[in-house]
Amino acid sequence: MNGVLIKDVVSDWVTFPQPAPQARLRLFCFPYAGGNAMIYRKWPVDLPATVEVCAIQLPGHGNRMRERPFDRLIPLVEALAQELYPYLNKPYAFFGHSMGGLISFELARLLRKENRQGPEHLFISGHRGPEIKDAEPPMFDLPTAEFIEKLRRLNGTPKEVFEHPELINLITPVLRADFAMSETYEFVHERSLECDLTAFGGVGDTEVTRKHLEAWRMQTSGNFNLRVFPGDHFFLNTARTSLLQVLSRELERLS
């Protein structure tokens, strides 16, 4: 999944699992910490044909692993906005899970500041309202052994990875950078976004509760919806079919 040419523009940041140039709506999908664009590689099969999935590949992730990852969120969003401008030439929506939800939210706010056309809909998955501080102490700067143990408990890294020290050594710097982006983020109050906003969560997610998700209601003057699915923080994978059914209905309305 390399960058795909749109007219004379190509970007390593935007990948298309299944190019659909005639689609009426683009869905930009942002990964969680440690994730990459491959998370969304099968989504086009289960979403409407009128929607083109555009999976975001961040520096340091996937086929960009040789690049230095960002460790602060706002500089990442500013760089990402520059790359996305050529792709915002038709209606679009944002979907982001966990760290990706925060990225998509701040990106939507930045585009508004620049008087650019914003997303038709913002889908925030597995992330607390942006003004709510994490009650847990930061983990991005923990000693290696403690950092790895915390990763195990989060249940987002395949168990096989922990059996191979060389893989852990490879991914740890990127994960530390991703967690640093989220854990050093400082929310700044602005007027609410105008687009509709839907918050998704896992019923068994102890890190992001229903109350945390409800806080997103304050970030939009449009319609707000909240849906929870079976599973923990990574219901994105375990409840994928149900999630995409709900997402499809919303996207069909937009496209």
Q: How would you sum up the global shape?
A: globular
Classify the fold: give the CATH topology: Rossmann fold
Share in helix? 25-40%
Give the overall pLDDT as a whole number: 92
Spatial strand arrangement across the major sheet: 1-3-2-4-5-6-7
Structure in a nutshell:
It is built from 8 helices and 7 strands. It has helices spanning 43-46, 73-84, 99-113, 144-154, 165-183, 210-214, 235-238, 240-254; strands at residues 14-15, 25-30, 51-56, 92-97, 121-125, 196-202, 224-229.
Topology, pairings included?
Blueprint: E1 14-15, E2 25-30, H1 43-46, E3 51-56, H2 73-84, E4 92-97, H3 99-113, E5 121-125, H4 144-154, H5 165-183, E6 196-202, H6 210-214, E7 224-229, H7 235-238, H8 240-254
Parallel strand pairs: 2-3, 2-4, 4-5, 5-6, 6-7
Antiparallel strand pairs: 1-3
Helix pairs in contact: 2-3
